[in-house]
Each structure stands twice: as structure tokens, then as C-alpha cells.
């Protein structure tokens, strides 16, 4: 798609207030593909005003009608899925099949789930002599990252719209074209003017202005823990509602009775997918001492299939590439055993990182504690099940994880003891209705399904 040179505010593309632009770079070949305007506090203010003006009308729109508009949005996203996939590939660098299946496919599922939920959700409940009304919170400021550019947008905008909220979106600097395409889709779907607004721009300028804006009622942020803490402090000081989806360092726990080959293969695929840029990726694989070396060699074989430029794309930009390579060097320095990959860039052009596997990783190592956000897997050894649990929980994060056991019962018993928000049991399948979000420093609040919808509602109780 061709980039717009304005902001989408009040149902139309308006000129940006300033002259600055952001270059959009294709990470696979380092070429500038387009430019988008860098929004200012003035643009943010105009967008918030438009969202505020549209709020009473949208909040009063019957849920069935809101549902119909969200269903229309889902249909536009489905109809334009090839263009979405190509746009994501161009600005994120993900291989086209992944863009088609995941980056373009999942948002259609999620938008569809909210079209259904808006129509079926009970926005009123009886509690003794009270009637509790579940009302929209108001104007939402949504700030999203680049790793799943469209999914992160839809996971905020669809439930907000279902709840009756209006939205101003500030997408990531690296992936604004997908966000512009989404804005086009909201227009095509017939959303009333001002219900959805887009301001592209730099995080510390447009993002901060949005988080600080006094007429924003709820800030929903997905991104790094460092920025999340800052936004949390701002929102707290202003007594705004807040949702934070932050980082992760999830464990893939392979219990002694589990199918080792399956658990290792699925685990490697999970980490390498999207070049490791998945906040919920199971970047720490935990294996018992007896089967440890077998797991290491299975992982080395599995990772060889991830050829840079073919099955695995680049990381998003030069800074991320340097950051991930720095972590690989740190792993070697701290004494981890390099089994595959390494810090050298595998290709001359593009921000590629070699798919990397470390063995003999111990829990206190930097690569076992910090989020790398690249195609790097650490394999840790545990002595017994209690030791595995201690290692799994030994991080400031708690976003996701996986457990493989001899049967589901054994795996569930372990999962109950994990300090984390989502656990896949014996290779469980993705469920767009399951609440997604973090324990500990992985965040506040939940996205997806009815739990995600309730984030955008506030209660009013009437007593009779
Ligand atoms: P980031 O925190 O740098 O940026 C995220 C968004 O915040 C971007 O839109 C950015 O422009 C904006 N931003 C930056 N500084 C800001 C400020 N001071 N005020 C307001 N907005 C600001 O993160 P990133 O590099 O885009 O994404 C990578 C990180 O995001 C990883 O740590 C990853 O784990 C996390 N992440 C978490 C989830 C989740 O659901 N938990 C999902 C995806 C990514």
C-alpha cells in the first residue's frame, strides 16, 4: 500500500500538524519503503477531541449494531488479507506464509470473536436488589508495538469498540503502514467518524502525549516493561484506567514422562517463529538431567531447519539486531555452551540473526533472566520437579509458558503452581477467547475474549 501523509482523525485523513516524518524500512533489505508523518501533541489532541465527540453516540449505539460494525470490520480485514500480509512482510520482515497465516489471519479471528461477543455479552447483571450496568470507560489511548503489528491493534480496538469506547491509536514507529491500512479498514467498515482515530509518531512524543492527555480515560499499552512502568506512573498519577501487556521470559517445562522429541520440536518452533519476537515465546526450555543431552541434540537438529531468509526472517531493525547479538555474546561470556548459531550475522544484508541455541544455561545467567526478543533458545537442566518449578518461576516475568507431561493431569498439576498468566498443556492450541496477560512484571489486565472486553467496562450499580 501507499502511505498516507496525514493522520486519520474524525473519519478523514487530515494533514499532520508538523513537517517531520518517520522512514519505514524493510528489515530484509534495509531499504526505505515509505514515510509516514511523525505526530505531535497537537495531532494527539485533535484525535482525542474527535474520539471524545464520538463517544456519547457510540456508547449509546445498541450492542447489536456495534457488533454489526465490528463484523463488517472483520470482513474488510478478511477481504484485504493479502495486502495486509504483504504490508507486514514489507515493514516487519516476516516470511510471507507467516504473515498470511498469523499476522493477517489471527486479527480476522479476534475481530470475529468480538463481533460475536458484542452481540451476546451481558452489559447488565442482577445482584440481589441491585442492577449492575456495565458501561464503557470512555476514550481509550492505545499504544502498540511492532512485533504483531495488526494483532496488537485489533486486540485493543475490537474489545474497546465492542464495549462502546472510542479509540486513539499510536502504533509502533517501525510498523505504521499496517496501522494506516487498519484505519482504512475502519472507514470501509462504516465505523462512525471519530470512533477510531490514528496518530502515527514517535513514542516519546506522540505516545507520551497520548498517555498524558487529560481527556483519555484508559491507557492500554503493549510494549517493553521499561516504557510500561513509565506509562503506569503517568496513568496512576492521573487516576486513569490502565492495561499493560509487557515482556516475558516464559518457561517450556518438559517433565520426565513427556514425549521429548515432540516437546523439543514444538518448543524450538515456538521460539523461532516471528524471529523470536514474541513476548510469550518459551525462551527457556527446562529438561531433566537424565534426558538433558538428548534434548540438546534434538534442539540442534530442529533449529537447523530455520534458515535465515527462508523459514526465519530478520529482526525488525538494526538496533534490535545489535541488541540480540549482544545477548548471544553475553551468553558465551557467562559460560553457556553454544550449540547452534552465534553472534555473527548470517547474511550481509538485512537485520538477520542466526537462530541460536544455548545449553548449560543456569538460572542466574543474563540470557536466562532478561527478555532477548530474538531467535535465541536457552536450555536449562533441572534435578527434580520442585527444582523445575523453582527455575520456571525464578524471573520477574510471568506472561506464558508450556508444560509437557506424561498426561494432561500431570502437566496441569505443574501448571497450577506456575506464576504465569497462560500455559499451554501438552502442546495446547491457540484459543482467541482465552485471556492473555501477565503475572508479576509482565503486566496488568488481560486481552482477548470476554476478559479482554471487561477491561473496557466500568460498573454502575442501581439499588432497588
Ligand atoms: P516499546 O516499549 O519501545 O514500544 C512500544 C510502543 O510504545 C511503541 O508504539 C512506542 O512508540 C511507544 N512508546 C515508546 N516510548 C514511549 C513513551 N515514553 N510513552 C508512550 N509511548 C511510548 O517496545 P517495542 O520495542 O515496540 O516492543 C518490544 C517489547 O514489547 C518487548 O519487550 C516485548 O516483550 C513487549 N511486548 C509485549 C507484548 C505483550 O502482550 N505482553 C506483546 C508484544 C510486545
From TrEMBL:
- Tell me where on the tree of life, at the top rank, the source sits: Bacteria
Residue span, Aldehyde dehydrogenase domain: 13-461
- Active site, renumbered: 245
Which keywords accompany this UniProt record? Oxidoreductase
Q: What InterPro entries does its record include?
A: Ald_DH/histidinol_DH (IPR016161), Ald_DH_C (IPR016163), Ald_DH_CS_GLU (IPR029510), Ald_DH_N (IPR016162), Aldehyde_DH_dom (IPR015590)
Q: Pfam families of this UniProt entry?
A: Aldedh
Q: Which family does it belong to?
A: Belongs to the aldehyde dehydrogenase family.
Q: What is this protein called?
A: Aldehyde dehydrogenase family protein
**Protein source organism:** Streptomyces atroolivaceus
Amino acid at each position: 500500500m501507499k502511505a498516507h501523509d496525514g493522520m486519520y482523525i474524525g473519519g478523514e485523513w487530515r494533514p499532520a500538524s508538523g513537517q517531520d516524518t518517520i522512514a519505514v524500512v524493510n528489515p530484509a533489505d534495509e531499504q526505505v519503503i515509505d514515510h509516514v508523518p511523525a505526530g505531535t501533541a497537537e495531532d494527539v489532541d485533535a484525535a482525542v477531541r474527535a474520539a471524545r465527540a464520538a463517544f456519547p453516540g457510540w456508547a449509546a449505539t445498541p450492542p447489536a449494531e456495534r457488533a454489526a460494525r465490528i463484523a463488517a470490520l472483520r470482513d474488510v480485514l478478511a477481504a484485504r488479507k493479502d495486502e495486509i500480509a504483504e504490508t507486514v512482510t514489507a515493514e516487519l520482515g516476516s516470511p510471507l506464509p507467516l504473515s498470511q497465516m498469523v499476522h493477517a489471519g489471527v486479527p480476522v479471528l479476534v475481530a470475529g470473536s468480538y463481533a460475536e461477543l458484542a452481540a451476546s455479552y451481558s452489559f447488565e447483571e442482577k445482584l440481589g436488589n441491585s442492577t449492575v450496568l456495565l458501561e464503557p470507560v470512555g476514550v481509550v489511548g492505545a499504544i502498540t508495538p511492532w512485533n504483531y503489528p495488526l494483532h496488537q491493534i485489533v486486540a485493543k480496538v475490537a474489545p474497546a469498540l465492542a464495549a462502546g469506547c472510542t479509540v486513539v491509536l499510536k502504533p509502533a514507529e517501525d510498523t505504521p503502514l499496517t496501522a494506516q491500512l487498519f484505519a482504512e479498514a475502519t472507514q470501509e467498515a462504516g465505523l462512525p467518524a471519530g470512533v477510531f482515530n490514528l496518530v502515527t509518531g514517535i513514542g516519546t512524543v506522540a505516545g507520551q502525549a497520548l498517555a498524558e492527555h487529560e481527556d483519555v480515560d484508559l491507557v492500554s499499552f503493549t510494549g517493553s516493561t521499561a516504557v510500561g512502568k513509565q506509562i503506569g506512573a503517568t496513568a496512576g498519577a492521573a487516576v486513569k484506567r490502565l492495561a499493560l501487556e509487557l515482556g516475558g521470559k516464559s518457561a517450556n517445562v518438559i517433565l520426565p514422562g513427556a514425549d521429548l522429541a515432540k516437546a523439543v520440536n514444538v518448543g524450538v518452533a515456538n521460539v523461532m517463529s516471528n524471529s523470536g519476537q514474541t513476548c510469550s515465546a518459551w525462551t527457556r526450555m527446562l529438561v531433566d538431567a537424565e534426558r538433558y543431552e538428548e534434548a540438546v541434540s534434538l534442539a540442534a537438529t530442529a533449529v537447523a531447519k530455520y534458515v535465515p531468509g527462508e523459514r526465519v526472517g530478520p529482526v525488525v531493525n538494526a538496533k534490535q539486531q545489535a541488541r540480540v547479538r549482544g545477548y548471544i555474546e553475553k551468553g558465551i561470556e557467562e559460560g553457556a555452551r553454544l550449540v547452534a548459531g552465534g553472534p555473527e550475522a548470517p547474511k550481509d544484508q538485512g537485520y538477520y540473526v542466526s537462530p541460536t541455541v544455548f545449553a548449560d544455561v543456569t538460572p542466574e545467567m543474563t540470557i536466562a533472566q532478561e527478555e532477548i526478543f530474538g531467535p535465541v533458545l536457552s536450555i536449562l537442566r533441572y534435578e527434580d520437579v520442585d527444582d523445575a518449578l523453582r527455575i520456571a518461576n525464578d524471573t520477574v516475568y510471568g506472561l506464558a509458558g508450556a508444560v509437557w507431561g506424561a498426561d494432561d493431569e500431570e502437566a496441569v498439576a505443574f501448571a497450577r503452581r506456575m506464576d504465569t498468566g497462560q500455559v499451554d498443556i501438552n502442546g495446547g492450541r491457540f484459543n482467541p477467547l482465552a485471556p492473555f496477560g501477565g503475572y508479576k512484571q509482565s503486566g496488568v489486565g488481560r486481552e482477548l475474549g470476554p476478559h479482554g472486553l471487561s477491561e473496557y467496562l466500568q460498573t454502575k450499580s442501581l439499588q432497588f
